[in-house]
């Protein structure tokens, strides 16, 4: 039975044996009307930096955003990360990005997908390189029309190895074979993540692939904003997640006194 935990600190081993894996939008950061409007609340970068130190580098951001976009959000800080739904990663904050060699989407098909934004004002395009997103938070009435139009484009490209991922007010198209789960599995093969117990927090449908692999990794998963199947507990909102992360540091400091 899924339980509700606001401060599940007791479930975690010491930070020096954990690998903290954190989704960004809707998990660490509050959702905004557009992807470019998200912002990092005061104190979060310091909390993440301290956790990065306490885990000896085993903290990573896991996102559908590109690594470049992640870095812009958290600038000037850089963190280890899995970006592009597993298509690229960075194992340490001072390392260069490592591509998983996901092929770019077909330019002609991307042009067709971009034209879908003309269905209604408020539909926003986001080209992530490895994937293509149509955001409709500002045009919720257009949801069905967007998915119908994407389905029509897919009919014209029957051999394209792509999949459609629904999200929170977003329809995302990406290559098959790359998910947040594949990215996390690859990440956990490398130091300093290897041999640690992963703790993953996510909020969206795309995070469910990571929820599903946590048992095989002896890891823990927590959902945000909703109760998801297979998680150890959930947080109501990103502000609860941020407070919990700060509490992890405080708890460890008190234990050491």
CATH class of the largest domain: Alpha Beta
Number of DSSP helical runs = 7
How many domains comprise the coordinates? Answer: 2
Secondary-structure element series: EHEHEEEHEEHEEHEHEEH
Rg: 18 Å
Looking at CATH, which topology of the largest domain would you report? Rossmann fold
**Roughly how many Å apart are the termini?**
36 Å
Q: What would you call the structural class?
A: alpha/beta
Topology, number of strands: 12
The parts where pLDDT drops under 50 for at least 5 residues are 1-7
Describe the strand arrangement of the main beta sheet, using strand numbers.
5-4-3-2-1-10-11-12
Structural description of this entry:
By secondary structure, this protein is of the alpha/beta class. The protein has helices spanning 44-54, 67-74, 107-115, 143-156, 180-187, 208-213, 238-256; strands spanning 18-22, 59-62, 81-83, 88-90, 98-99, 124-127, 131-135, 162-167, 170-175, 197-202, 220-224, 233-235. The chain is globular, with a radius of gyration of 18 Å.
């Amino acid at each position: 039975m899924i339980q509700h935990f606001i401060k599940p600190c007791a479930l975690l081993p010491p930070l020096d044996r954990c690998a903290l894996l954190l989704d960004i939008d809707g998990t660490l950061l509050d959702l905004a009307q557009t992807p470019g409007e998200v912002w990092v609340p005061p104190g979060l970068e310091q909390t993440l930096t301290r956790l990065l130190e306490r885990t000896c580098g085993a903290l990573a951001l896991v996102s559908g955003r590109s690594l470049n976009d992640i870095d812009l959000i958290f600038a000037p800080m850089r963190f280890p990360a899995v970006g592009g739904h597993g298509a690229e990663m960075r194992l340490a904050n001072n390392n260069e990005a490592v591509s998983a060699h996901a092929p770019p989407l077909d330019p002609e098909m991307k042009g067709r997908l971009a034209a879908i934004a003309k269905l209604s004002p408020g539909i926003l395009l986001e080209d992530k390189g490895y994937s293509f997103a149509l955001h409709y938070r500002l045009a919720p009435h257009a949801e069905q029309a967007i998915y119908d139009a994407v389905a029509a484009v897919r009919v014209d490209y029957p051999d394209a190895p792509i999949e459609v991922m629904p999200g929170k007010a977003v329809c995302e198209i990406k290559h098959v074979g790359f998910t947040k789960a594949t990215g996390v599995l690859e990440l956990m093969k490398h130091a300093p993540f290897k041999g640690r117990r992963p703790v993953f927090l996510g909020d969206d449908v795309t995070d469910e692939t990571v929820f599903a692999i946590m048992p095989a990794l002896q890891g823990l998963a927590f959902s945000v904003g909703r109760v998801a199947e297979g998680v150890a507990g959930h947080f109501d909102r990103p502000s609860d997640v941020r407070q919990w992360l700060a509490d992890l540091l405080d708890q460890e400091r008190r234990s050491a006194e």
